[in-house]
Design brief:
This protein is mostly helical and about 375 residues long. It contains 17 helices and no strands. It is globular and about 65 Å long. The chain starts with 16 loop residues before the first helix and ends in a 16-residue tail after the last helix.
Length: about 375
Amino acid sequence: MFGRSFFGNTHDTYYRPFVNLSFAVNALIGGVRPFGYHLVNCLLHAAACVLLLALFRGLRLGDRNSLFAALFFAIHPVHAASVAWIPGRNDALVGCFTFCACLLLLRDARQPGKAAQIGHLLCLLLALFTKETALCLPLLFIVLLWAIEGRHALLRRRWMWAGWVIAMAVYFSARYAVITPPPGYVAGQFRTALLGWPVLLSDLGKLLLPVRLQVIAAPVDTLAWPGIVSAVIIGAACFIRGMRRGIVALALAFMALPLLMSLLGAKYVVLETRLYLPVAGVGILLGELLRATRLQGAKAAFSALAFVAAITIALGIVTMQYIPSFRDRDRFSNAAISGSPNSAIAHSLRFKALHPDMFNFLPPSGGATQ
């Protein structure tokens, strides 16, 4: 698994051996039956939710506020793409490794020890071998340490800096031993990111206003106005009295860094799996907002509880309506076209769903992809 690219063809530029390894274990145990793959996805999401709840409590958001924020994360509609859709597993895996690495870094900050340090670096390495988004994690960890200890904590952690360098070196050595990027690949990725900035508004909008969910979308079919509204809401929440500056910065880092990384691959397709970590950032902001307001009195507390419950129920309803889009190839391809009528990939998926026998005659490497 560590000696091949993600899709196993010569044109592939993705290197995600740990995801392929997890699918291989599924195949060894249950063959090609979907149940085992779905079960693992659900268990991974459940584990990520528990780890995130522990992280919220570690950030001292308060037990009740942490629970509300974790529930928001657990049932958010965009997670259907990472849980109900089998190929979306990579983002749930990255979420588990990221939240665990943050928890271990918090533990080392408050009770230094070799076990926490080694565990943190191992989680980082596993995240790198799971998805390219993990390349932004060291920046996220820097913001986390600054939020809880201040900038001076960064200077005295030599093990952390050295460990990050070693982990990155191991990852890139393994990656370039398998994948040789075409000429101009890096420059092309950055050009895609610069030209695809409107996708950020669509992604940001789905975090707070998931009014138009798309299983697979072309950038031209994304909506901008929910992102503008969401940006205004998030910006206003950041300046509410009592909000801790470091925790707000951490929430924004969770939202912004993975979204910026996702732009590198948003030339032709926009996937909601890339929003797994940003939803955690919204959860941090929500928990901190609840902590900062601290409504007094039974009536005010009940009103706040009713408001959060209403949001949770609304998100749950949207999620349950969205999940069937990932049930089989026919529904998935229909949802792809209805959500993004200008996507060539969506129309290709629909054609394959209607005429699966035609693709049995194509060569296995390259032909089917083309």
